[in-house]
Amino acid sequence: MEWYFYLALIGVGLVAGFINTVAGGGSMLSLPLLMFLGLPANVANGTNRVAILLQNIVGANTFRQKKILNLKTDYRLTVPAIVGSIFGAFIAVEIDEHLLRKIIGGLMVVMLLIVVLKQEAWVKDQAGKVQAKPTVLQYILFFFIGFYGGFIQMGVGFLLLAGLVMGCGFDLVKANAIKILIVLFYTIFALAIFIYNDQVDWICGLLLAAGNMLGAWLGVNFTVKGGARYVRYVLILALIMVTIKLLGII
To answer: How far apart are CA 41 and CA 39, in angstroms?
Structure first.
């Protein structure tokens, strides 16, 4: 591999890590690059999980240091999401990839409309209004979001944000912190499966991870300093880009 590909992996990882941390959809950049470098799709998928795992370790720890994430209480919604992701990963069904991209693209359009039209729900301060312990309905909701993440993965960050903001009442800053924690935990299980099946390129994965980790650190600082209003703008832009790509508009 030429030296400039190493720089490309780090550079794309930085942008992807920032987007993943602030909104979602960064893998739309990193996965095509890995496949362009010659990795089979399944190996690219597994290799990308290395970067996502390390990115979310940095992101979760930085949110914790800034007192946004409380590991003693904010872990609760990770449990149903992990269980759901395991079930989703073990569901072996055949589905046309072209149709799948259209379905996910449609979901992203719905998500975009919710973010644009329901502005107040995404930016208002919910301090003191969020229940300390999730309800049964919230546990069920995050089981199914986790199931989706384990089965399909693409766009799950957006669905997690929707569940945390619209379903639980968190503002975007807090929702992003919990989203990072949830993805961190269930990525451990997903990556283990890829490693077991020898579908990880460690050199590419660690180079990409170097960029992702820096991007995550920058993303957390942007989220905390910019607040929910600015994070919402990035979320809208990311949703537009992902929807256009998935629907093949350009």
So the answer is: 6
Who's near 95: CB < 8 A, 6+ residues apart? none
- pTM beyond 0.85, yes or no: no
The rounded distance, in Å, linking the Cα atoms of 226 and 32 is 30
- Contacts of residue 77, defined as CB under 8 A and 6 or more positions apart, other chains included, come to 134, 138, 139, 142, 164, 168, 178, 182
- Does residue 7 carry a pLDDT above 70? yes
- Residues 22-48 as b/e (b if ≥16 CB within 10 A, e otherwise) read bbbbbbbbbbebbeebebeeebbbbbb
CA distances (Å), origin 210, targets 52, 84, 96, 130, 203:
10, 29, 34, 35, 11
Q: Residue 176, Cα to own-chain centre: how many angstroms?
A: 9
Residue 52 has pLDDT above 80, yes or no: yes
pLDDT over 70 percentage in the chain = 85
Assigned token pair, 59 = 């992101």
* Cβ proximity of 157 and 25 under 8 Å: yes
Query: How many other C-beta atoms lie within 10 A of the C-beta of residue 92?
Result: 6
Q: Which amino acid is at 160?
A: L
Burial of residue 195 (CB within 10 Å: 0-12, 13-18, 19+) is middle
- Give tens-digit pLDDT for 106-135: 777 877 787 777 666 566 655 444 556 788
Write the CA distances from 232 to 10, 23, 68, 175, 220, integer angstroms.
Answer: 26, 8, 17, 12, 14
Distance (Å, whole) CA 154 – CA 1: 28
